[in-house]
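Deliverable D5.2: sample structural annotation.
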Amino acid sequence: MSVEKVNQYKEHKKNRKQEIEQQKKKDALNRVLAWVVAVVVIAALVVGIAVTVVNQVKKASASKEDMSYTYSSYELMDYADIEGTAATEE
């Protein structure tokens, strides 16, 4: 081994504990960030679904309010002669 390689190995060995601690911190930070991203994505999906459902309910209730229930829209034929129209025709 050359002198440079030996010196490099000694430096690496001397700083090994600090490097391991830094790597553990980076791994923990990456884990936390992954959870945060996952929670944000799930929350966005839930909010999107909730907004869609609310809009559909509002649309359905608005269409019910627009319907007019007038006499002419529900005019039925008088099969039982309740109004007595058959007697007057004779």
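Annotation notes: The mean pLDDT is 82. Helices lie at 3-14, 16-66, 85-89.
The annotation will be released with the project's public dataset once the embargo ends.
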